[in-house]
Amino acid sequence: MLNADHPLAQLIKSGRPVIGDGAMGTLLNQRGVSFDQCFDELNLTRPALVADIHREYIEAGAQLIQTNTFGANRYKLAQHGLEDRLVEINRAGVDLARRVVLASFRPVLIAGDVGPLGVRLAPFGRVQPEQARQAFCEQIEALANAGVDLLIFETMTDLYEIREAIAAARQVNPDLPVVASMTFTRDDRTLLGDSPIKIARELHAAGADVIGVNCSGGPNQILRILKQMRQAVPDGRFSVMPNAGWPEHVDGRIMYPASPDYFSEYALAFAKAGACLIGGCCGTTPRHIEVMRRAVETTPLESFQNGLSLTVVEQEEAAHAAEQPTQLAQHLSDGKFVIAVEMDPPRGLSTQKIIAGASLLQEAGATVINVADSPMARMRMSPWAVCSLIQQKVGIETVLHFPTRGRNLLRVQGDLLAAHTLGVRNVFVVMGDPTAIGDYPEAMDNYDLVPSGLIKLIKHGFNVGLDHAGANIGQPTSFFVGCALNLNPSNPESEIKNLKRKIASGADFILTQPVYDVDTARFFRDRIDRALGGLELPIIVGLLPLVSGRHAAFLQHEVPGITIPEPVYQRMQAAGENAARVGIEIAIELIRQLRSDFQGVYLMPAFNRFDYAAEIIEAVRA
């Protein structure tokens, strides 16, 4: 329990949030210290460098600074052969901070910074809880004896570990206030899968004086997590210290996109959502702290007091709202014209070509990359692996093609969980090509679910945390689900009936087969609109750029569902050696006509001519 007479309690009691400092490691690295070096040792070897950073944060308005001791525990120091100097390094860190505070003539609090041990605790690692607690005790005792005002456990990923840290603090010095702060992944879960609601309740029960969230992503995500924590523990105290956005690698350097002005806006939002301590983590600078302090100081006190009342919601509602929409979902929701491009997985182990192609398409302006699953029933690498590689290495969102054919209920659900775990959120549900047309015609061709059934399983099962049998899967998925449509069907009534079933099952968007006649596509879209009493789902129209007269002839005569208007067909036949160029021109013309009536185009470049697709995208974006 935080003593009411403690300086931290007095600052909180003032009604305005306490302003902490920002990143230490980011600034040390910017000033020439390699990430391979031990930052904590700099307290001994380069004290002036560390002191300068403390001084800059105090001059920016920080009311609380953290010691440069994030990794000064026995396990992390041992990686640099410094475990025998643990007490010396921690004491030096506190002494440095104190000297800077005294020189500033300001009432700045000194927080002993304690980070993760850098090892896994049982049952997920070899370090037993009592060993972890002892390691925390060593560092906390050194910090406490040196005279810190409070302790901050930050960037913790393991609930087991941070509970041992809190227990160690209470064992060493029960009077030292404890800020216990966890970090979260992009899906608003810890690395071990715990939700903000669970974390807040567990830390409160463990005796943390202030419950925190730090690092993670940028201010937007941190605000979302803070609100969930506040809903879980309405009477708790909370701290927030976000990164300056998600880090990006640019020319070999780590860059953070969130500007100080952006932090200024969020400082007030954090305070109104219940944060009593606000600072920054990776990528933040004294400038970030300065603008937050100014925003807090110039805002009337009653604005914070009026903003502290939050409606408590059920845990399930908060959990379902936790994850942000995919970029594709956001683009469609905002009414933007999206461009998707289909890529086929490789037949072997090499992924270099597909990564290179995806990079080209991203640079050209593609919104997402669609990854097909065994197109034409031919053996290829599983597409969720390709989706994951593209997202990780290229940084563009993907759409996973997910056919029902050839999958029983066990495989369907296992594959969905695998895809979600790999960060794939956009799924395009189709029946899939029959194995009889592929290179393994004798392969099993059965399925337990039709596309509408799989859409229902995802949207009304997995996305609410339940499997097909109604059993709990631990946490809800957040798939954004597309369905297929033919805008030139041989049986329009049947096509509309199937679409209606897919929409009722929960489909979020529509991808169509290739279109070459815009008027026909518009006519059938209008017919669907009348039949359904209004079609609200966005339609992304398929387009397969023609590359030769022979290619046009093949599609016209041998591929069901594709009709090429006579003028387009003759234009390709007359193009001769310039056919590929004419095909690109036709594709650009079609897209420009489609833009007014549809919300996107889905390019399917033939023969892996991603350069053609990139040229089309650039022309359309221009």
Task: Please give a structural write-up.
This protein has 622 residues and is an alpha/beta fold. It folds into two domains: 18-320, Alpha-Beta Barrel (TIM Barrel); 327-546 and 599-621, Alpha-Beta Barrel (TIM Barrel). 45% of the residues lie in helices and 14% in strands. The protein contains 25 helices and 18 strands. The protein has an eight-stranded parallel β-sheet with strand order 1-10-7-6-5-4-3-2. Strands 11-12-13-14-15-16-17-18 form an eight-stranded parallel beta barrel, surrounded by six helices. A two-stranded antiparallel sheet has the order 8-9. Helix 4 runs parallel beside helix 12 (286-297) and helix 24 (579-594) packs across helix 25 (610-621).
What is the CATH architecture assignment of the largest domain?
Answer: Alpha-Beta Barrel
Provide the β-strand percentage band. Answer: 5-15%
Which whole number gives the mean pLDDT? 90
Number of helices: 25
Unreliably modeled segments: 306-322
Q: Count structural domains.
A: 2
Class of the largest domain, according to the CATH hierarchy?
Alpha Beta
Strand order of the largest sheet: 1-10-7-6-5-4-3-2
Could you estimate the helical fraction of the residues in percent?
40-55%
- The best one-word shape is elongated
Radius of gyration: 29 Å
The CATH topology of the largest domain, please?
TIM Barrel
Number of strands: 18
What is the CA–CA distance across the termini? 61 Å
Describe the sheet with the most strands. 8 strands, parallel
Structural class: alpha/beta
CATH homologous superfamily of the largest domain?
A: Homocysteine-binding-like domain
